[in-house]
Specification:
The protein is mainly beta and 607 residues long. It is built from five helices and 36 strands. It folds into four domains: 70 residues, no CATH class; 303 residues, no CATH class; 96 residues, Immunoglobulin-like (Sandwich), CATH 2.60.40.10; 104 residues, Immunoglobulins (Immunoglobulin-like), CATH 2.60.40.10.
Length: 607
């Protein structure tokens, strides 16, 4: 009887795992990622004025319109659109028109999307960025969105989650405001909402640095969540403190839970809010929590009962099945501060640094202060000697990349990038350096170690798998069949599938034999990567296939010449024999003297 209860309790996970294994296709582009695209800063800086946001929210069939008023022409502005694709395999398009201008069409390619400002993750959840600084004006503005929904050439679902406007505007009477505007599309999800390697993605984070925090500073954090669901708790923390207010209906939620993503815009701090299907936009006063460096964490839920799972069903769910954080905006008012630029340089990277060949030095330059007058100078040095000085216009976004070519001799070198700008508020971080070894062409090779089961001590034997009784397998089979009959709209629960599946049980009991039902378990695969060449190798991806399906991609920051690193790759699968294939730099972004040893494949026993 215990086996029956356990399988019924987890039946939603079984359904999702099998359903997804049918529909999911392996991502092949540089942009699409099922697990999500991290939130990175699209714009930052300082303005005597404010950062304004406007929007039209709630999943609806297009066209969608957003009308708003700006006090003056913005110095930087973005329009973000959220579009539901149906699945990551479907393609279509969206069209955006600003102030009755000529519509601009963006093709949406799902898993094959490569547009740098089209963020698509999960089963086709799109967050799309548009630079509209030059299209907006002081006074009334209107943005109109339509999609290929219903068009004969398009299979995309095409409903729109939202139009979200961000505009940085000047106001001579306002205090200085320092700001960070991030964009991306994280896919926080449980085991049941991924493919043949049913991973978990429970949390993600954003870091904001150099806020100029002082006691009593006024600061706000605005967030955008897509595919949120009322009744499933989720959380946002700022420097370790929960934001928002606890829920009051303890008949639906666990005690102390919060539900930031509850399909109601503007209610997370206790207000009434406005209902918005599968969308949440919330603003929090975080001045009392502000530090010089700040960490924002999104959580899809919490394991409140300590059973090792974040339950998403039952009378009091512990978390969301899935939710997509797409934007986090931090604004900090700095009254009394003097306006000045404040540049910093990220650690540089060197691409293609091999003896006798031209390499490229790149560095990201960030401005935390006001826009400077005139150009800025970027100085590139090798071993203390300047090799190039370039002058560039400062980007309106406050973030830009500078680069130059250089030919390096064999040996060890120190590469430095410095930015010079007059009246910099903090010149201590205006330069950054790195060391590298230059020699023969790199040679990556990989090896796979024995899979390690989570929680299983060395030498211990795994428990034998058990036979699932015929009635339970019949239930599972019935639920799988119903999965083919439904197209999951964003945020929909599996209640419909469970009800429909129950109706199939009577027939299934008579015809379905028992099968082995091994549970999914956590494993770690140690992968060793060696660089046998004489030059350091830059960043690349390590791709892992499980039983022929792409299961994981791990980013490797780089490997030194003649160096070896071991990376633990998490997989979530069944005990028994599986085929693994691991490839270093599958995309061929790194020059390699022998690509034949970049991949290894074989069968491995998972204990």
């Amino acid at each position: 009887m215990t086996d029956y209860m356990n399988i019924f309790r987890n039946i939603h996970i079984w359904l999702c795992v099998i359903t997804v294994s049918v529909f999911i296709a392996a991502p092949v582009s540089a942009i699409y990622d099922f697990e999500g695209i991290p939130l990175n800063t699209a714009a930052q800086g300082e303005v005597r004025g404010e950062v304004l946001t406007f929007g039209t929210y709630g999943l609806a069939a297009p066209p969608l319109e957003c009308t708003f008023t700006l006090p003056s022409k913005p110095v930087w502005a973005r329009v973000y659109t959220g579009v539901w694709g149906g699945t990551e395999r479907y393609t279509g398009w969206e069209e955006l028109s600003v102030n009755n201008g000529v519509p601009v069409r963006r093709d949406l390619f799902g898993k094959d999307d490569r547009h740098p400002e089209t963020y698509v993750s999960g089963y086709g959840v799109y967050w799309i960025a548009h630079d509209c600084t030059d299209q907006f004006r002081g006074g009334k503005n209107t943005v109109t969105l339509t999609t290929s929904r219903g068009q004969p050439e398009s299979r995309i679902d095409g409903r729109a989650y939202a139009i979200f406007i961000v505009a940085v505007v000047e106001d001579a009477k306002s205090p200085l405001t320092r700001y960070w505007i991030t964009e991306g599309n994280e896919n926080l999800h449980g085991e049941g909402w991924s493919g043949t390697n049913p991973t978990r993605h429970d949390t993600c984070e954003v870091i904001f640095e150099k806020t100029g925090a002082k006691e009593g500073t006024a600061a706000d954090l605005t967030v955008v969540l897509l595919a949120s669901t009322k009744g499933q708790p989720d959380y946002i923390l700022f420097n370790g403190e929960d934001l928002g207010v606890p829920v009051t209906d303890l008949s639906l939620y666990p005690e102390g839970a919060r539900d930031i993503g509850n399909e109601c815009v503007g209610d997370a701090t206790g207000g009434a809010g406005v209902e918005a299907r599968y969308v949440d936009v919330e603003t929090f006063d975080i001045g009392h929590l502000l530090k010089e460096t700040n960490r924002v964490v999104f959580e899809r839920g919490r394991d409140l009962d300590g059973d090792g799972e974040i339950s998403t069903t039952g009378s009091k769910p512990e978390g969301e099945d899935y939710i997509h954080p797409c934007s986090a905006i931090l604004t900090v008012q700095r009254p009394g501060a003097s306006p000045a630029p404040d540049f910093s340089v990220d650690k540089p990277v060197v691409i293609g640094a091999y003896a006798g060949e031209e390499a490229t030095i790149q560095a990201t330059v960030r401005n935390y202060g006001v826009q400077p007058d005139g150009k800025i100078r970027a100085i590139f040095s090798v071993d203390g000697s300047v090799v190039k000085t370039v002058e560039v216009e400062p980007a309106r976004s406050g973030i830009q990349q500078v680069e130059t070519g250089v030919t390096l001799a064999e040996g060890r070198h120190t590469v430095m990038v410095r930015v010079d700008v007059g009246d910099d508020a903090d010149p201590t971080d205006n330069e950054a350096s790195m060391q590298l070894t230059v020699g023969t062409i790199p040679d990556l090779s990989v090896a796979i170690g024995a899979p390690v089961r989570g929680g299983l001590e060395a030498g211990a034997q795994a428990a034998p798998t058990q036979q699932a009784p015929a009635p339970l397998f019949a239930l599972l089979a019935g639920l799988v069949l119903t999965a083919f009959l439904m197209m999951r709209p964003p945020g929909q629960k599996i209640t419909i599938a469970l009800i429909a599946g129950a109706g199939i049980i009577v027939v299934s009991l008579l015809v379905i034999p028992p099968v082995t039902a091994a549970g999914y378990l956590d494993y770690t695969i140690p992968v060793t990567i060696k660089n046998g060449g004489g030059s350091d190798v830059g960043a690349f991806d390590l791709t892992i296939y499980l039983d022929g399906e792409k299961a994981a991609v791990k980013h490797v920051d780089g490997i030194g010449a003649k160096a070896t690193v071991t990376i633990d790759v998490p997989l979530y699968t069944t005990a028994g024999k599986h085929r693994l294939r691991v490839i270093a730099d599958e995309g061929g972004t790194i020059k390699d003297s022998n690509r034949a040893n970049n991949a290894v494949e074989g069968e491995y026993v998972f204990p």
